[in-house]
Amino acid sequence: MKIGIDKIGFYTPHIFVDMEKLAVARNVEPAKFTIGIGQSQMSVAPATQDSVTLAANAALEIINDEDREKIDFVIFGSESGIDHSKSGAVYVHHLLGLNPNARAVELKQACYAATAGIQMAKGHVALNPESKVLVLGTDIARYGLNTSGESTQGAGAVAMIISANPRIMELDNQNVYLTNDIMDFWRPIYSDKAFVDGKFSNEQYILFFNKVWEAYKDKSGLELKDMEAICYHLPYTKMGLKALRTVLDDAPEEVKERLLENYQISTIYNRNVGNIYTGSLYLSLLSLLENKELKDSSRIGMFSYGSGAVGEFFTGILQPNYRQHLNLEGHQQLFNSRQEVSVEEYERIFEETLPADGSDIEFDISRDPATIVLSGSLENKRQYVNKNR
Ligand code: CAA
Fold first, then answer.
1. Is 253 designated active site?
2. Cβ 146 under 6 angstroms from ligand 1
3. Which of 76, 177, 237, 277 could form a disulfide with 267, with the two C-beta atoms 3.0–4.6 Å apart?
């Protein structure tokens, strides 16, 4: 039985900062951010968006009434969770009006959690072929104003339906994974901003990629020439390129050219959104699929990396007419309707968070065009609104 990605949706907040303007404000050469890091725009999450609303808005784009009935498992992958106990999946399940006879859980392992979610979903569908699983990768990347990680922030979510007979991508089963206890990037419970050893994280990302790629080649017998493209977890768009370059010497010239060209296409969306942690690899896949017509049955390599660290390499096969099941127009509209905010405005928005002492607050939701928003907090409970209900 074929199992894989049947639908894929995406959401990013309605405001962004221009990276050249951020560079000027930080006294940095703009080319460092646009070329050295490889980012053009950075999505900014207003106080009315959190990991739950981002995920719910991404899912809203893809689910119909049949999905509402058939989804019996919601997996919320995030490292921006809003509660130490209750999962974000339960809120999303309610906001979307899904069938009550469903499981709902949250998974965490930095940027890797959505990949773990997809693998769990595959197992669930293998045992229950009629089921559909909603897998969410949703995050707000926060390092802090004026930090070296600031240029690699971002916000957004990807939602996927994993099912039998998928219409977009069949996932194969020769995955290779790797875990090693390292401190390259982490976020202690008391902090709403990440801690990072930047250079070390870059080195480990590449090391993990090299190790899982080598092992994948041994296990599968496949090589670079068998990949139409390789999509990467993209903390910033230069990162995947650095990893890809380390293996290109093994490939004939035409394969090298193809992989480099498709790499650029796979970074278009990420370049304008920033890091969305768990959703980043899948946003890169979406960018590739929506911005280039690839042949049916093309094999796409996927490198997932979650600091701390877990890495995985796996591949998927594009299904006949997969492009008919994408939403290029909707995503172009999402990007085109975003509004730029000044660096000063972004700084103000960055500091506007729910009160840390749990006191009540009400936000003005009229300025956020998203369908699902956070309207505030009352008696220590986040208040969510689905404007369509
Ligand atoms: N024109 C063009 N390029 C320029 C330039 C200019 N004027 N000035 C500098 N550059 C280049 C540099 O040469 C460098 O390129 P290379 O890496 O190819 O050598 C690049 O711009 C970045 O410069 P620095 O290394 O000096 O940048 P930095 O130290 O200020 O910060 C960073 C870079 C370490 C990535 C930092 O942004 C950071 O810590 N980010 C968060 C951590 C991260 O994203 N790590 C990635 C791996 S971990 C992971 O993937 C998990 C996750 O999501 C967090």
1. no
2. no
3. 237
Task: Quote the ligand 1 centre to 36 CA distance (angstroms).
Answer: 7
Please give the Cα distance from 256 to 253 (Å, whole number). 5
Active-site entry in 111, 124, 150, 231: 111
Query: What single string gives the DSSP state of each residue in 315-372?
Result: EEEEPTTGGGGS-HHHHHHHHHT-EE--HHHHHHHHH----TT---EE--GGG---SE
| Residue with CA closest to ligand 1 atom 11 | 36
Which amino acid, 384?
Y
Question: Domain 3-168+326-386: which CATH class?
Answer: alpha beta
pLDDT digit string (tens) for 118-166? 999 999 999 999 999 999 999 999 999 999 999 999 999 999 999 999 9
Q: Does the global pTM surpass 0.85?
A: yes
CA distance 12 to 205: 25
pLDDT digits (tens, 9 = 90+) for 162-174: 999 999 999 999 9
Q: Where are the domains of the chain?
A: 3-168+326-386, 171-321
Atom of ligand 1 nearest to the CA of 242: 18
Q: Do domains 3-168+326-386 and 171-321 have the same CATH topology?
A: yes
Q: How far apart are CA 75 and CA 233, in angstroms?
A: 19
Provide CATH code, domain 171-321: 3.40.47.10
SS3 of residue 309 by DSSP: coil
Strands (E), the chain: 3-11, 15-18, 41-44, 71-77, 103-107, 132-141, 154-164, 169-171, 176-179, 185-186, 195-196, 229-232, 299-306, 310-318, 339-340, 361-362, 372-378, 381-386
**Binding site membership of 307 for ligand 1 (Cβ less than 6 Å):** yes
First-to-last C-alpha distance (Å) of the chain: 37
Is the N-terminal amide bond of 309 cis, ω within 30° of 0?
yes
3-state secondary structure 70-95: HEEEEEEECCCCCCCCCCHHHHHHHH
Atom of ligand 1 at shortest range from CA of 234: 50
CA-nearest residue, atom 32 of ligand 1: 198
